[in-house]
Protein backbone atom coordinates (compact mmCIF):
# COMPACT_ATOMS: atom_id res chain seq x y z
CA UNK A 1 0.00 0.00 0.00
CA UNK A 2 1.37 3.40 -0.96
CA UNK A 3 1.88 6.25 1.51
CA UNK A 4 -0.99 8.13 -0.14
CA UNK A 5 -3.31 5.13 0.20
CA UNK A 6 -2.39 4.71 3.88
CA UNK A 7 -3.06 8.40 4.50
CA UNK A 8 -6.47 8.19 2.85
CA UNK A 9 -7.35 5.07 4.84
CA UNK A 10 -6.37 6.83 8.06
CA UNK A 11 -8.47 9.84 7.10
CA UNK A 12 -11.54 7.67 6.42
CA UNK A 13 -11.00 5.78 9.69
CA UNK A 14 -10.92 9.07 11.57
CA UNK A 15 -14.12 10.29 9.91
CA UNK A 16 -15.91 7.07 10.84
CA UNK A 17 -14.62 7.20 14.43
CA UNK A 18 -15.68 10.83 14.72
CA UNK A 19 -19.14 10.02 13.42
CA UNK A 20 -19.52 7.25 15.99
CA UNK A 21 -18.48 9.57 18.82
CA UNK A 22 -20.59 12.52 17.62
CA UNK A 23 -23.57 10.20 17.18
CA UNK A 24 -23.45 8.98 20.78
CA UNK A 25 -22.02 11.98 22.64
CA UNK A 26 -22.88 15.05 20.55
CA UNK A 27 -20.39 17.58 19.23
CA UNK A 28 -19.45 19.65 22.29
CA UNK A 29 -18.71 16.80 24.76
CA UNK A 30 -16.67 14.83 22.21
CA UNK A 31 -12.90 15.06 22.47
CA UNK A 32 -10.24 14.57 19.83
CA UNK A 33 -8.49 12.14 22.17
CA UNK A 34 -11.60 9.97 22.34
CA UNK A 35 -11.89 10.05 18.55
CA UNK A 36 -8.22 9.24 17.92
CA UNK A 37 -8.35 6.40 20.45
CA UNK A 38 -11.43 4.93 18.78
CA UNK A 39 -9.73 5.22 15.41
CA UNK A 40 -6.58 3.58 16.75
CA UNK A 41 -4.28 6.42 15.76
CA UNK A 42 -2.23 8.99 17.66
CA UNK A 43 -3.35 12.54 18.32
CA UNK A 44 -0.51 13.64 16.08
CA UNK A 45 -1.88 11.58 13.20
CA UNK A 46 -5.33 13.07 13.76
CA UNK A 47 -3.99 16.63 13.68
CA UNK A 48 -2.06 15.84 10.50
CA UNK A 49 -5.39 15.27 8.76
CA UNK A 50 -7.67 17.63 10.69
CA UNK A 51 -6.56 20.86 12.33
CA UNK A 52 -9.52 20.95 14.72
CA UNK A 53 -12.61 19.13 15.93
CA UNK A 54 -14.69 21.48 13.83
CA UNK A 55 -12.74 20.49 10.69
CA UNK A 56 -13.40 16.85 11.51
CA UNK A 57 -17.10 17.55 12.00
CA UNK A 58 -17.14 19.34 8.63
CA UNK A 59 -15.74 16.20 7.01
CA UNK A 60 -18.42 14.06 8.68
CA UNK A 61 -21.08 16.51 7.52
CA UNK A 62 -19.74 16.52 3.95
CA UNK A 63 -19.74 12.71 3.77
CA UNK A 64 -23.24 12.57 5.24
CA UNK A 65 -24.53 15.15 2.77
CA UNK A 66 -23.08 13.18 -0.14
CA UNK A 67 -24.98 10.11 1.10
CA UNK A 68 -28.20 12.07 1.53
CA UNK A 69 -27.92 13.47 -2.00
CA UNK A 70 -27.64 9.93 -3.30
CA UNK A 71 -30.82 8.94 -1.46
CA UNK A 72 -32.84 12.11 -2.07
CA UNK A 73 -31.76 13.12 -5.54
CA UNK A 74 -33.03 16.30 -7.18
CA UNK A 75 -36.40 15.65 -8.78
CA UNK A 76 -36.47 15.54 -12.55
CA UNK A 77 -39.21 17.71 -14.01
CA UNK A 78 -42.00 15.72 -15.60
CA UNK A 79 -40.91 12.37 -14.20
CA UNK A 80 -44.39 11.66 -12.74
CA UNK A 81 -45.35 9.62 -9.67
CA UNK A 82 -43.93 12.19 -7.28
CA UNK A 83 -45.89 10.92 -4.29
CA UNK A 84 -44.57 7.37 -4.70
CA UNK A 85 -41.06 8.79 -5.06
CA UNK A 86 -41.59 10.60 -1.77
CA UNK A 87 -42.80 7.44 -0.03
CA UNK A 88 -39.97 5.31 -1.43
CA UNK A 89 -37.31 7.84 -0.52
CA UNK A 90 -38.45 8.09 3.11
CA UNK A 91 -38.19 4.31 3.36
CA UNK A 92 -34.71 4.34 1.83
CA UNK A 93 -33.61 7.15 4.13
CA UNK A 94 -34.91 5.33 7.21
CA UNK A 95 -33.02 2.18 6.28
CA UNK A 96 -29.79 4.11 5.70
CA UNK A 97 -30.17 6.03 8.96
CA UNK A 98 -30.31 2.74 10.81
CA UNK A 99 -27.32 1.36 8.93
CA UNK A 100 -25.00 4.33 8.30
CA UNK A 101 -23.57 6.06 11.37
CA UNK A 102 -21.97 8.83 9.30
CA UNK A 103 -25.34 9.78 7.80
CA UNK A 104 -26.93 9.61 11.25
CA UNK A 105 -24.18 11.76 12.75
CA UNK A 106 -24.61 14.29 9.96
CA UNK A 107 -28.29 14.68 10.82
CA UNK A 108 -27.37 14.98 14.47
CA UNK A 109 -24.81 17.70 13.78
CA UNK A 110 -27.40 19.62 11.75
CA UNK A 111 -29.53 19.98 14.87
CA UNK A 112 -26.66 20.46 17.34
CA UNK A 113 -26.62 24.08 18.51
CA UNK A 114 -22.98 23.76 19.61
CA UNK A 115 -21.78 23.11 16.07
CA UNK A 116 -21.93 25.77 13.39
CA UNK A 117 -21.06 23.93 10.20
CA UNK A 118 -21.56 24.58 6.53
CA UNK A 119 -23.81 21.59 5.89
CA UNK A 120 -27.39 21.25 7.07
CA UNK A 121 -28.85 17.86 6.21
CA UNK A 122 -32.19 18.60 7.82
CA UNK A 123 -32.69 21.72 5.74
CA UNK A 124 -31.71 19.84 2.58
CA UNK A 125 -34.31 17.21 3.44
CA UNK A 126 -37.02 19.80 4.14
CA UNK A 127 -36.30 21.52 0.83
CA UNK A 128 -36.29 18.19 -1.03
CA UNK A 129 -39.66 17.19 0.42
CA UNK A 130 -41.07 20.55 -0.63
CA UNK A 131 -39.72 20.19 -4.16
CA UNK A 132 -41.24 16.73 -4.60
CA UNK A 133 -44.58 17.91 -3.24
CA UNK A 134 -44.48 20.81 -5.69
CA UNK A 135 -44.02 18.22 -8.42
CA UNK A 136 -46.97 16.23 -7.07
CA UNK A 137 -49.12 19.36 -7.13
CA UNK A 138 -48.11 20.03 -10.74
CA UNK A 139 -49.13 16.46 -11.60
CA UNK A 140 -52.54 17.04 -10.00
CA UNK A 141 -51.80 14.23 -7.52
CA UNK A 142 -52.64 16.12 -4.33
CA UNK A 143 -56.08 16.00 -2.77
CA UNK A 144 -58.26 19.06 -3.05
CA UNK A 145 -57.43 21.62 -0.39
CA UNK A 146 -53.94 20.27 0.39
CA UNK A 147 -51.37 23.06 0.37
CA UNK A 148 -47.78 22.16 -0.50
CA UNK A 149 -46.35 24.15 2.42
CA UNK A 150 -48.68 22.48 4.92
CA UNK A 151 -47.88 19.00 3.62
CA UNK A 152 -44.16 19.78 3.61
CA UNK A 153 -44.28 20.87 7.25
CA UNK A 154 -46.08 17.70 8.35
CA UNK A 155 -43.95 15.26 6.37
CA UNK A 156 -40.60 16.89 7.08
CA UNK A 157 -41.31 17.27 10.80
CA UNK A 158 -42.56 13.69 11.14
CA UNK A 159 -39.70 12.06 9.26
CA UNK A 160 -37.11 14.12 11.13
CA UNK A 161 -38.88 13.12 14.33
CA UNK A 162 -38.52 9.46 13.36
CA UNK A 163 -34.79 10.11 12.85
CA UNK A 164 -34.49 11.53 16.37
CA UNK A 165 -36.53 8.72 17.95
CA UNK A 166 -34.56 6.07 16.09
CA UNK A 167 -31.34 7.00 17.84
CA UNK A 168 -32.49 5.25 21.00
CA UNK A 169 -35.14 2.94 19.51
CA UNK A 170 -34.12 1.54 16.10
CA UNK A 171 -37.66 0.29 15.43
CA UNK A 172 -38.47 3.86 14.36
CA UNK A 173 -36.28 3.26 11.30
CA UNK A 174 -38.28 0.19 10.27
CA UNK A 175 -40.35 -0.21 7.13
CA UNK A 176 -43.39 -1.03 9.25
CA UNK A 177 -43.21 2.34 11.03
CA UNK A 178 -42.96 4.33 7.81
CA UNK A 179 -45.60 2.14 6.19
CA UNK A 180 -48.02 2.95 9.00
CA UNK A 181 -47.23 6.65 8.71
CA UNK A 182 -47.93 6.70 4.98
CA UNK A 183 -50.97 4.48 5.40
CA UNK A 184 -52.47 7.17 7.65
CA UNK A 185 -51.32 10.18 5.63
CA UNK A 186 -51.81 9.20 1.99
CA UNK A 187 -55.65 9.12 2.10
CA UNK A 188 -55.54 12.76 3.23
CA UNK A 189 -52.66 13.80 0.98
CA UNK A 190 -53.38 12.12 -2.34
CA UNK A 191 -56.20 12.55 -4.82
CA UNK A 192 -58.75 9.77 -4.30
CA UNK A 193 -58.39 8.22 -7.75
CA UNK A 194 -54.59 8.01 -7.29
CA UNK A 195 -54.66 6.15 -3.98
CA UNK A 196 -55.05 2.70 -5.50
CA UNK A 197 -51.68 2.94 -7.25
CA UNK A 198 -49.76 4.26 -4.23
CA UNK A 199 -47.92 1.80 -1.99
CA UNK A 200 -47.32 3.06 1.58
CA UNK A 201 -44.85 0.23 2.25
CA UNK A 202 -42.77 1.23 -0.77
CA UNK A 203 -42.54 0.18 -4.41
CA UNK A 204 -41.98 -3.54 -5.13
CA UNK A 205 -38.33 -3.04 -6.13
CA UNK A 206 -37.65 -1.07 -2.99
CA UNK A 207 -39.41 -3.60 -0.77
CA UNK A 208 -37.20 -6.37 -2.09
CA UNK A 209 -34.10 -4.36 -1.21
CA UNK A 210 -35.07 -3.39 2.35
CA UNK A 211 -35.40 -5.60 5.43
CA UNK A 212 -38.59 -5.70 7.47
Automatic annotation (TrEMBL):
NCBIfam families: ScbR_bind_reg (NF041196). Keywords: DNA-binding, Transcription, Transcription regulation. Residues 8-68 form the HTH tetR-type domain. SUPFAM superfamilies: Homeodomain-like, Tetracyclin repressor-like, C-terminal domain. PROSITE patterns: HTH_TETR_1, HTH_TETR_2. Gene3D superfamilies: Tetracycline Repressor, domain 2. It comes from the Bacteria. It comes from Streptomyces melanogenes. This is TetR family transcriptional regulator. InterPro entries: ArpA-like, DNA-bd_HTH_TetR-type_CS, Homeodomain-like_sf, HTH-type_TetR-like_transc_reg, HTH_TetR, Tet_transcr_reg_TetR-rel_C_sf. Residues 31-50 bind DNA.
Amino acid sequence: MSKQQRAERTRQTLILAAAEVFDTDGFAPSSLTTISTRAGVSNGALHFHFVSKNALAEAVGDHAMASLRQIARPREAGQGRSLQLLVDTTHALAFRLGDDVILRAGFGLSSDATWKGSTDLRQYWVDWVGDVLTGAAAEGALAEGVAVEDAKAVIAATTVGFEAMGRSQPRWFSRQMFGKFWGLLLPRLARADALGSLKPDGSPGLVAALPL
